From TrEMBL:
Protein name: Uncharacterized protein
Lineage of origin: Bacteria, Pseudomonadati, Bacteroidota, Chitinophagia, Chitinophagales
Amino acid sequence: MANANWLDLLKFRVSYGMMGNDDIGNYTARSYYTAQNLLGISGLVKGNLGNESLMWERVSKANIV
């Protein structure tokens, strides 16, 4: 193998990664109310229309070069 110069250029790479979407807000999946003041009268208004079926996105990726 001392004369196998092509072996010096041979590379084998393997990678695996799992990532997700982190642009989801902290309370996006939940409905909540927030206080609001209009003309000196305080009240509660719906702050968010929640989506209970919202889940974290998971993407797996593998590379073999």
